[in-house]
Amino acid sequence: MKKLSIFLFAAILVLAGCGSSQEGDDVLTIWAWDANYNIPILEKAAEIYNQTNPEVEFDIVEKGLEDIEQSLHTSFASGTTQGLPDIVLIQDDKAQLFLNSYPDAFYAMDDAINTSDFLDYKVSTCQYQDATYCLPFDSGVAGLFYRKDIYEEAGYTAADLEDITWAEYFEIADDVYQQTGAKSLNYYPSKALIKIMMQSAGSWFADAEYTNLKDNPVLVEALETSNEIHNAEWALETTDRDQYVSGLNSGELASISEGVWIISTLTQSSDQSGKWAVAPTPKLEVDGATMYSNSGGGSLYVVNGTGDEELAADFLGTAFTTEDIYDFMLSEVGAIGSYIPALDSDVYQEEIAFFDNEPIYATMAEWAESVPSVEYTPEAAEVISTLDTMSNDYFTGKVTVEELLDNVQAQALDL
Amino acid sequence: MKQVFKHLFLILISLVSVFPFFWIVVGMTNTTEDIYQSKLTFGNAFFENLSVALNQNNLIHVLFNSLFVTLSVIVLAICVSSMAAYGFQFFGNVKTEKLYDIIIVSLMIPFTALMIPLYKQIVTVGLLDNYLAVILQATASVFLLFYFRQALKNFPLELIEAARMDGLQEYLIFFKIVVPSMKSTYAAAIIFTFMSSWNNYLWPLLVFKSDTMKTLPLAISTMSSGYSVNIGAVMIMIVISTIPALIIFFTFQKHFVAGMVGSAK
């Protein structure tokens, strides 16, 4: 027992000696999530940068999305940058929370990039006090993805889905359901669809223009529109993301309004190749409504205080302003970038077999340039999470939309 | 007749509780698409999934990290806590009792409240991204101290006094007399420590920064975060993280119940 303990203790000390890398040393550490999406893009970017700067080494670490946020919060709250990466990928809708809570935590990118080269709405997600703190990464430009074969069977063509309102779309969806039995759209508590609606009209939860949530016509309209989906028999009821993915793969669900990244999920069902198409997002019936929106997407941030800030900013500013990286993003992982000069390259014009040989990426990249900017404020995040818990009362008819928004206001904002 | 119903009921309940395990095992052999379509029969994607787990997610290395950290914690935490409990119980005075009370009160502070100061400490001593950061944090376990002390309260003092009378040194009394007669207590402590260390998620997440330090819960969390997740590979990781827990539990099971009732007979 005693010998065993001594042996183990010695073993621990030896292994504990295997320390971590030191800072300010030409090694750029990057944290990101998703081994099939973000990681290969970053590896390619490293490869591109190494062509001109062979001395720089990269340590690209895959971590879960929530794990990254938790680690950042703990480190920043402890006031230490030790152990933090040089570059980190953050979701756009969480960015303002970090920038507001830890104003000195990130390195301003204004000198490293020309912000006007990037999609407006992406740049605005990481602007704080007149500085830009990120390299805008992937665009989550949204569209209405639908099963062309099923819609055609019910007598609808692409032209019928072009430039329509949600109300008009609901009639079509209902008709498709009556004729074919296939459901359209889904709802589940994450509010992804409400977010898409809000951004398409250039407004966001807790819009600074309105003191009271219920005065924001876009929010009211988006909630009322979602309510119709919740209570429609043609919509698929799901409780989480897995269920709607399952609905898509099995063919039960014939349309979905999502960001461009859903394509990698759709294409998992190879037997559905050639049967899908994408239409612009339907419009809300409010002032400023457009057919263009966004869902998800992240941006790359340089962490301040690691000693490698300038190198990290130079890497991002160099590798992510080449056409190569954006061609790779699109052709290898199906991600649309935010760098405008690269959005009309040849790769974007390619016809995609899964979408019946339509050049859908060229179409969606065009939409991306028209997505309205909105402010993902920390207050908005608070409103969204409160809505998550309270909106069911509205969707089940217990309260009206005004009452719901009053309740949310009281809990999330008026403290 | 009553017996038949009783058994039918029990069979039904066991089917319900075994189903999730069955689902995971079937899932290991299916593609993500099949899993989403709730396929309940074995498929042939097992080796594909395994290779994703092995190559893309470093299964072997991750497993080593988890085992190394957990075994170290078990040995150290149980040694330290049981010896401390022995000290408090048989060498106590008024002052050590006060100290013991203070230590016990710290059980009431949730880990989330300790997290940031603890993290600062680890950074200051330079143990970030180091196995010791997790091992040392779990070594001093207040719960184990309390648990061993409770068990020792029923330990016959006569046995120890007899040994002292015969001139046995104190540390030998502990190792040769106290430890062997409290096997069931130790078994229960091992199971408890194993479970909490094996499943420990938050603290390793904060102090293990690099890819090479990931433990199983961290690796599973990483794999499940993405636009398209390879569910089959995740299932393999889950099965592998369950097996050691089962082995430990079944090995020590017969002691476990006795240990929870716990005393030297």
Main traits of this protein?
heterodimer; A: alpha/beta; 5-stranded mixed β-sheet; 18 helices; B: 265 residues; mainly alpha; globular
Account of the 3D structure:
The complex is a heterodimer of chains A (415) and B (265). In chain A, α2 crosses α13, α9 packs antiparallel against α10 and α17 packs antiparallel against α18. With 415 residues, chain A is of the alpha/beta class. The radius of gyration of chain A is 23 Å and the shape is globular. In chain A, the strands form four sheets. Chain A has a five-stranded mixed sheet. Chain A has a three-stranded antiparallel sheet with strand order 10-7-11. In chain A, strands 4-5 form a two-stranded antiparallel ribbon. Chain A is 46% helix and 12% strand. About 2% of the residues of chain A have low confidence. Chain A contains 18 helices and twelve strands. In chain B, α8 runs antiparallel to α11. Chain B is mainly alpha-helical. Chain B is built from 14 helices and no strands. The chains are: A alpha/beta (415), B mainly alpha (265). At the A-B interface, α1, α2, β2, α3 and α11 of A face α2, α4, α6, α7 and α12 of B.
**Biggest pleated sheet of chain A:** 5 strands, mixed
Radius of gyration of chain B, in angstroms, nearest whole number: 23 Å
Overall strand count of chain A? 12
- Can you give the helix content of chain B as a percent range? over 70%
**Number of helical stretches of at least 4 residues of chain A:** 18
Strand content of chain B: under 5%
Kindly report how far apart the N and C termini of chain A lie. Answer: 59 Å
Principal-axis shape of chain B: globular
Q: Poorly predicted ranges of chain A (pLDDT <50, ≥5 residues)?
A: 17-23
Strand order of the largest sheet of chain A: 2-1-3-12-6
Determine the oligomeric state from the structure.
heterodimer
End-to-end Cα distance of chain B, whole Å, is 42 Å
